[in-house]
Amino acid sequence: MKKNKPKFIVVTGGVISGLGKGITTSSIGRLLRDDLKVIPIKCDGYLNTDPGTMNPLEHGEVFVLDDGGEVDMDFGHYERFIGIRARKEWNLTMGRIFQSIIEKERKGVFLGKTVQHIPHVTNEIKGRILEVCEAEKPDVVLIEIGGTVGDMENELYIESARQLRQELGSDMVSFVHLTYIPAPSSLGEQKTKPTQQSVKLLNERGIFPSIIIGRSEQFLTEKVKNKIALFCNIEEEAVISGVDVKTVYENPILYDSEGITDLIKKKLGIKFKPKLDLWIELVERIKKPSRELEIAIAGKYTALRDAYASLVEALTHAGAHLDCRVNIRWVDTVELEKKKKEINKVFEGVSGLIVPGGFGARGSEGKIMAINYARVNKLPFLGICYGLQLAVVEFARNECGLELANTTELESEGITTPYPVICLLESQKSVKNKGGTMRLGAQFVRIFPGTKLRELYKKRVIRERFRHRYEVNPEFMPTLEKHGMRFSAEGESGIVQAIEIPDHPFFLASQFHPEFLSSLEHPAPLFYGFVAACIEHKKQKK
Questions:
Q1: Which residues contact 455 (CB under 8 A, 6 or more apart)?
Q2: Would you call the peptide bond into 274 cis, given omega within 30 degrees of 0 as the criterion?
């Protein structure tokens, strides 16, 4: 295949949102990746430049890339399934598109013409997609169009995809439509009408899907497949069951068994053979583990589990390699603050605790309470980002005698401290804007010898992803060390990157986010070590 002529697979969604277009796109990528270079591009309709300043309770997790890009959480799925390291240019948002159009208009790039959605915006979208192709030289480009067909927000992306197929040819661009097949309990059968109407909406926009995936609780019946094929003008073999599965990692196996691999080969004229032996073995371990345990995740965004998507997946990865199902007990730290006397009951029976990243005062004291419980009761603990910072605050208060110790992050909310054990990074002191200005992306981390962290990573230098503004205050490091805290890693400029407590079975916290680099085949060492410690803790409790 000529490197300068990639094939395109465009994934759209119909009927309802939340069907799993990101997982579907990632699963197709997983099937292609062993023999082909695959690049995913996500098209989001919102007017934000990126998701960096969006509330996790509204949009879910902000996923951070090596290059510092703050992108849609679907990029986490792309990286975990396809095994690539994505770039921020691969995430198109309508906010960024319009920003570029306006800047070009102000500079006179359009030579006085009336700037319109078509052709100027659609040309901008296509131009960005083709720029990625030029830079990356992929064999296949997967384009996921966010939202549902018929949404106002994604109309320009869909029109751009139509034009792309018109310009490049039907043998170069193929469409996969993910839709919903309801089966009302009162009727006892699968209904195809919503799918027919969804495909009709696509047809009205000049798009005729090559493959239709019907999301449903049960496999699609032959009758249903035949009916969809008839009314949607598609071969019956191109109607695929997207049945509910026990784990998202089962989807590539499911789609392959449903014939999507042969369909893609046929539609686009490409050759590839998925190598799924290890993947299948790990999926079986997820589905049928020999043991299980429960871990508490204490945070303030627990109302929307997608806010901690990569965290949950990292635990699944570690569990698969340790033949252990990791069940999660979600602890809302805002509510925990109201139940100080019930804290033993809240954490009763759990084998470990994670305090993940976050921001601000709300729920912070609840996190500190949880950390104290884990430290005092020798419960395996893993802190991430803000979790590290609050672990330092807890230790300073309860072990170093600095009762009013806190982070200066809370000063903007009226909470001051005489002992600022966590302070603003020097590089952040002149920053005014919030979006895209944190210490972001992949950074080198030097791990000190003789530490638990070094034992887990088995490397002197690692590269991990960051998203923070605050650091451990160097002025208080001697005091913290004197009372038993160990600083186990540092950044290139001497910033503390990890801490641990040696006389605890497992008490580690990292300023970086190890969950962003974890995958099913290669679990993050920090999560692997944490889950192993939780397994040991449960054994000892018995």
A1: 529
A2: no
Look up tokens 């499911």; give the residue: 254
User: pLDDT at position 1, please?
Assistant: 40
Answer whether residue 52 shows pLDDT above 80.
no
pLDDT cut 90: percent of the chain above it: 82
Burial of 349 (C-beta count, 10 Å sphere; 0-12/13-18/19+): exposed
- Homologous superfamily assigned to 290-541: Class I glutamine amidotransferase (GATase) domain (3.40.50.880)
Residue whose tokens read 């884990």: 374
Rounded Cα–Cα distance for residues 351 and 264 (Å): 45
Tokens of 122: 């659609």
CA torsion sign for 398, 400, 403, 408 is: negative
* Separation between Cα atoms, residue 213 and residue 195, nearest integer Å: 10
Measure the CA–CA gap between 264 and 254, rounded to whole angstroms: 15
Mean pLDDT lowest among 251-265, 330-344, 372-386, 478-492: 330-344
Fold of 7-280: Rossmann fold (3.40.50)
Which token pair is 114? 């009336």
- DSSP letter for each residue of 261-314: HHHHHHHHT-------HHHHHHHHHHHS-SEEEEEEEEES-TTSGGGGHHHHHH
Domain 7-280 identical in fold to domain 290-541 = yes
Measured in degrees and rounded to the nearest 5, phi and psi for residue 383 equal -110, 140
Name the residue type at position 30. Answer: R
Catalytic sites, residue numbers: 385, 513, 515
Q: End-to-end distance of the chain based on CA atoms, in angstroms?
A: 59
